[in-house]
Amino acid sequence: MVLPTPWANVVYALTALVVIVLTAYAWRRARAPLDRVALLGLGISLATPHLYIYDLLIVIPAVVCSAEHLLGPRQTGSSELRIVTYGSFLCPLLALGGLTYSLPLVTPAVSALWLVLLVTLRNGSEPGVTTTR
Questions:
Q1: What whole-number distance in Å separates Cα of residue 35 and Cα of residue 72?
Q2: Where are the domains of the chain?
Q3: pLDDT band (50, 70, 90) for residue 77
Q4: What CA–CA distances, in Å, run from 7 to 11, 38, 45, 49?
Q5: What are the CB-based long-range contacts (under 8 Å, 24+) for 12-21?
Q6: Rounded to an integer, what distance in angstroms lies between the CA atom of residue 32 and that of residue 112?
Q7: What are phi and psi of 103, to 5 degrees?
Q8: Following CA atoms 40, 10, 54, 24 in sequence, which dihedral angle do they give, to the nearest 10 degrees?
């Protein structure tokens, strides 16, 4: 552990609070149901104190949402979204192979996917919603 236990608990509580607040803000701004479910799943997985491989099922809607942004009819995804989507998809496979047992790469990958989806949705690029001019 990097920090002593009391400080680690405080830092965890603060980061969980930030994740919950940002997820709630993005939830209110997102209009497409798939985007909302993706943000909710990523927010829950990041606010949870322990994230195991079998808990990553809750991240599947986020990967589907990012795939819709990347491959949908409007293709509103960025190159950053493409990189973090592939990375978050492949990180659990590395953990299963025992290659990253001492360094869990899943949490940073899920965090990156969450942040890039927040930015993508903040810019108004939602594939499930059509806009009229």
A1: 13
A2: 5-122
A3: low
A4: 6, 30, 21, 14
A5: 12/49, 16/46, 16/47, 16/49, 19/43, 19/46, 19/47, 19/114, 20/47
A6: 21
A7: -125, 100
A8: 0
User: Has this prediction a pTM greater than 0.85?
Assistant: no
Cα-only R_g, the chain? 16
7-50 pLDDT, tens digit per residue, is 888 888 998 999 999 999 888 888 888 888 888 888 888 888 77
Amino acid at 69: H
- The first and second tokens of residue 46, run together, are 């990041």
DSSP string over 50-108: ---GGGGGGGHHHHHHHHHHHHSSS----HHHHHHHHHHHHHHHHHHTTTTSSS--HHH
CA-CA distances (angstroms) from residue 3 to 16, 24, 127?
Answer: 16, 28, 42
Who contacts 2 (Cβ-Cβ below 8 Å, separation ≥6)? 8
Which two structure tokens, joined as six digits, stand for 41? Answer: 């799943």
Rounded Cα distance between 109 and 56, Å, is 12
